[in-house]
Amino acid sequence: MKTDAFQEFTDEIRKAISEVLVDLKVEADIVLDRPPEGKGDMAFPCFPLSKKLRKAPDAIAKDIAAKIKPLGMIEKVDSSGGYVNFHVRFEKLADSTIKDALTKKDKYGSGEPKNTRVLLEHTSVNPTGPIHVGRARNPLIGDTLARILRLAGYTVTTEFYVNDVGRQVVVMAWGVKHLELETKPERDKDDYRYVLFYQQANKLLEEKPEVVKEIDEMLYKLEHGDRETVTLAKETCETVLKALMESLHRINISLDGFTFESRFVQDGSVDRVIEKLKTSEFAREEDGAFHLELESFGISGRETKWVFTRSDGTSLYTTRDLAYHMNKFTRTDVAINVLGEDQKLGMQELAAALSIMGVDKKPEIVYYAFVSLPEGRMSTRKGRVVNLDDLVDETVELAYEEVNKRRPDLSEERKREIARVVGIGALRYNIVRIQPEKQIVFKWEDALNFEGSSAPFVQYAHARACSILAKAGTWNREFDAHHLTSDQEKRLTKLIAGFPSIIADCADHRRPHVLATYAQDLAAEFNQFYRYIPVLKAEGPARDARLALVEASRWTLRNTLDCLGVEAPEEM
RNA sequence: GGGCGCGUGGCCUAGUCAGGAUAUGGCACUUGCCUCCUAAGCAAGUGGUCAAGGGUUCGAAUCCCUUCGCGCCCGCCA
């Protein structure tokens, strides 16, 4: 299927090569490569054919190159060093790419509607305190992925799974009900207030056995649907949740829905899951508690048991998660979860339990490594955290200083708005640009970098494009791509042509960081074009063609930023 | 003890799934460029045993094995 003009080019190459291979009476996979600068646009390495044809790779390449007639998107075929090199018919590529971008605008890059529902669970932090930067990697990856999948053509619903039945919530709810705060919260915000209740209650829990008893009783009541307790726990959670959403909203993240864990206890689905698991051949009982023996599912370590009920018959987190995932698959075709790498074993076990329950689908997991500080792992208990709200404040404030320095001409309101957009953009980009599985050591100097590989770099390129377009006046949109002749124009056009493929690739592989790399490349290429190719001072059809390229660049930059959750300012 | 992941110039990082031509960018450092569409920019320079060793291959940062270092996990917690 053709996703973009470059795809059309490679399809034609594949067809041409396969015809030649039939002619040469050899079979081989057609693997294409990107050749280095100056050697064409696509290459076919002939080394694997060498043995079969008993000929030198370079001779084969020459032979194949000679047999392929330039046609359609293929302008020229030559060979060097054992490769067949294909040169794209640039005017054709440019014409269809730029027209595509100018027509589709904010939809440029989109894929065909997929008719596949995706339920993307992300964030799902325990609502017991403010979001810190370590945890923020989850919503950032999740939200970016959701945006990419949507552009790629999927129907995406994002969801936050709220833990409102666990011990932590009970401890916090108990604190809210029984305690007065001893210290002032860091911020006048409920997540900062409630975490203090939580911490004070935990402290009492260590000191006073009677509190332990009260908490245990509350937990039991909660599990057994005691109305007052259930309501208290849920209200407590919702209060904190609301505050957490405010923090996420500041970095352009919102979720489509929430699913409360308590629901699966109340509607009986957890009980049904437990009853069914008990009848499984993998189920074992020990002192009244039940577990699955998962050794045959490849679970290894000290423990291969997966406990699904306590001795008192109550459920565990994992059991409820199983009920949740069964529920998910009644609502979606594909379930994707964004999770910390500490959840890996748990998810492996969950997958095994799902198949024992007769569910043939499994959630796809995007794992990420933790963000730590130079001093070590973030820990609320040790007071070693960077809260998301503080990071937002800092980056926006620093961005304001920069705007103030560079654009004293702007109004205060305008400066503040640009600072917000730039600061938030820098923050998001800085986290999401890194492969999820790599650890990040959080450093303020990196987070506050507005140059080079950063969102502001990309935003700046966008603002430059907007500035040109704003000054251009009217121009002939029936441009002629033959007037795009420089290396800068050609490289930029080819990058834009590849955007739909990049989106499809990021979506299919669930890899948002690849888009961040693309954004950097595109902005760099645009900046070179900007530096060397005058647009407004050009005349006639050359001016029109360049303006068309600028507008195509503008949409591509904007759409790239939009997928990254970064706003694209028209001036900065 | 076992499992999973990571290791690319002083620092950060792309490429690893689908092995191919001189390994991608950024930060920092040195040096140029604003009478020219916004210098949050552009250009040039210094800097690499792709953790180490072995193997497969015409060809390995990429695949396989071993070792080392770092992270995460192995609870009737969530």
Describe what this molecule looks like in 3D.
- This protein has 572 residues and is α/β, with parallel strands linked by helices.
- Among the domains are: 84 residues, 2-Layer Sandwich (Gyrase A, domain 2), CATH 3.30.1360.70; 96 residues, no CATH class.
- It is 55% helix and 12% strand.
- The chain contains 21 helices and 14 strands.
- Strands 6-5-4-10-11 form a five-stranded parallel β-sheet, with helices on both faces. Strands 1-3-2 form a three-stranded antiparallel β-sheet.
- β2 and β3 form a beta hairpin.
- α4 packs across α21, α6 packs across α8 and α8 crosses α9.
- The chain is globular, with a radius of gyration of 29 Å.
- It starts with a helix and ends in a 9-residue tail after the last helix.
- The model has no long low-confidence stretch (mean pLDDT 94).
- The structure holds one RNA strand of 78 nucleotides.
How many beta-strand elements?
14
Oligomer: single chain
Put simply, the count of helices is: 21
Q: Which strands sit side by side, in order, in the main sheet?
A: 6-5-4-10-11
Described by strand count, sense and barrel closure, the largest sheet is:
5 strands, parallel
Q: Give the low-pLDDT segments.
A: none
State the shape. Answer: globular
